[in-house]
Design brief:
By secondary structure, this protein is an alpha/beta fold. The chain contains five helices and four strands. It comes from Dechloromonas agitata.
Length: 142
C-alpha cells in the first residue's frame, strides 16, 4: 500500500477497511507519522459497552462520559492524543449492528461528523471500521 493516501489530509474521513488490509494500512499510516490506534468493541455489543470500550482503547481523558456526545468531543479534542493526524481502527462493528441497529447508525454518524470536523480543523483523522455500512466508502488502495 502506498503511504500517499495519508499524505493528503483532504482524504481523511470514515471508511470501511476489511480486517485483512489493516496491518498494511497501519504500517503505511505509521510511516507518514500518523498515530495509529485500535479498538475492539466485540461482545457484548451494547451501546454502553461499545462506548466504554472505545473510551478505554482510545485512552480518552477521565472526563469522557461514555456517550455519543462525549465520543464526538474526545475525537475532536486537539489535546487528545497529540499528533499530526490519526488512523483509528475499530473492529467488532458487525456485532453492534446486529444487536442494536439504531446505536450502530448513531455511532456511524458520530464517527463521520468527528472525521469531518477534524478535516476542517486541518487535523486529519482517518477512521476505519471493519464492517460495511451505508454511506461509508471503502478505504482506497493508494
Amino acid at each position: 500500500m502506498s503511504d500517499q493516501l495519508f499524505s493528503n489530509g483532504d482524504t481523511s474521513g470514515l471508511y470501511y477497511l476489511p480486517p485483512h488490509r489493516q496491518s498494511t494500512v497501519s504500517t503505511a499510516a505509521g510511516k507518514t507519522g500518523l498515530r495509529v490506534l485500535s479498538a475492539d468493541i466485540i461482545s457484548p455489543a451494547t451501546k454502553d459497552a461499545v462506548l466504554s470500550r472505545l473510551g478505554t482503547a482510545l485512552e480518552f481523558p477521565s472526563w469522557y462520559g461514555a456517550n455519543f456526545d462525549a465520543l464526538f468531543d474526545c475525537l475532536t479534542d486537539a489535546d487528545w492524543q497529540p499528533a499530526k493526524g490519526h488512523l483509528i481502527l475499530i473492529n467488532g462493528m458487525a456485532e453492534l449492528r446486529a444487536s442494536d441497529p439504531d446505536s450502530f447508525a448513531t455511532l456511524i454518524e458520530v464517527l463521520q461528523a468527528a472525521a469531518e470536523s477534524r478535516q476542517a480543523a486541518n487535523s486529519p483523522c482517518w477512521i476505519a471500521i471493519d464492517t460495511p455500512a451505508r454511506g461509508v466508502p471503502g478505504l482506497p488502495e493508494a
